[in-house]
Write a structure and sequence with these properties.
The protein has 299 residues and is an alpha/beta fold. It contains ten helices and ten strands. An eight-stranded parallel β-barrel has the order 3-4-5-6-7-8-9-10, surrounded by four helices. Strands 1-2 form a two-stranded antiparallel sheet. This is Aldo/keto reductase.
Length: 299
């Protein structure tokens, strides 16, 4: 009944030859408040082994202001405690430029990367991801701009977020280094990438899948539709004490080595979620969740 190993038994890297990362990450799209509050969250993540910290320049933007606020708040934490920087694998994203909405022109990418580093109060990040694809940007120009940032030591690895399979292929064709990550929305309620080729591509190319909104935007914890309730029931059958732990561990059981990004801004929830690293699944249990999410039996 335990033929799928828990995530704690896996050694994951950021791309084919990148730094080692934990199978679970913490994200800062809702990070706000005082430096003391932010520092407690950072410490909790790191102390529980979650060393990949994910942010973006758009995090903090409320539609009219706040662009860069989450990065700036993390920068305050790092400035106050410089020793924390060496304990983390730091990732940020850019390319969303309200109200355009997207800009991956070489000039803007260079500007966005420099601005993020300034707000984060660091001279480099281990991972920089194109946040959403700019349809008007040629992938050759985007690739050249990103590789210039790598050559300058500003970013260690390049990744993408919310890219389709063909968009990933197009960008990779113009890069001299392999893409390290892809960051789609994945949860037991959003299973598209299991069947549309995204995860197959990630495994073939050695990209690490980073899953945003792994709890379905909170719908798993407060299910309303019949489908949501069916998925919740299947998860509860494996780990009734904490459905979010079951959901996270379900994603981590996939052979692509999915790294869910926790969105919680509560220290106790970060600590509790780390228990997902030890949950064991068998194939019957795992497929029961998938069938519930599909709403029909597998062929």
């Amino acid at each position: 009944m335990s033929d799928l190993p828990p995530a704690s038994e896996r050694t994951l890297t950021l791309g084919p030859d990148g730094p080692a990362i934990a199978p679970l990450s913490w994200g800062m799209w809702r990070l706000a408040g005082t430096r003391e509050v932010a520092a407690r969250l950072v410490h909790t993540a790191l102390d529980n082994g979650l060393n990949l910290l994910d942010t973006a320049d758009i995090y903090g933007f409320d539609g009219s202001g706040g662009f860069g606020d989450a990065e700036a708040l993390l920068g305050e934490v790092l400035a106050a405690e410089p020793g924390l920087r060496g304990r983390m694998v730091l990732a940020t994203k850019g390319g969303i430029r309200p109200p355009l909405p997207y800009d991956q022109s070489p000039a803007y990418l260079a500007e966005a990367i420099d601005a993020s580093l300034s707000r984060l109060r660091t001279d480099h990040v281990e991972l920089w991801q194109v946040h959403r694809p700019d349809i008007l940007a040629h992938p050759q120009e985007t690739a050249a701009a990103l590789e210039q940032a790598v050559a300058a030591g500003k970013i260690g690895r390049i990744g993408v977020s919310n890219f389709t399979v063909p968009q990933v292929e197009a960008l990779q064709a113009f890069l001299s280094q392999p893409l390290a990550t892809t960051q789609p929305e994945i949860s037991p309620l959003r299973i598209t990438c299991f069947e549309n080729g995204e995860l197959d591509q990630a495994m073939r190319m050695g990209m690490r899948p980073l899953a945003w909104s792994p709890l379905g935007g909170g719908r798993l914890l407060s299910p309303e539709s019949e489908r949501d309730k069916a998925v919740a029931h299947a998860l509860d059958a494996v780990h009734s004490a904490d459905r979010s732990v079951a959901a996270l561990s379900w994603l981590m059981a996939h052979p692509a080595g999915i790294v869910p990004i926790l969105g919680t801004q509560k220290a106790e929830r970060i600590a509790a979620a780390a228990k997902a690293l030890e949950v064991r699944w068998n194939r019957e249990q795992w497929y029961a969740v998938l069938v519930a999410a599909r709403g029909e039996q597998l062929p």
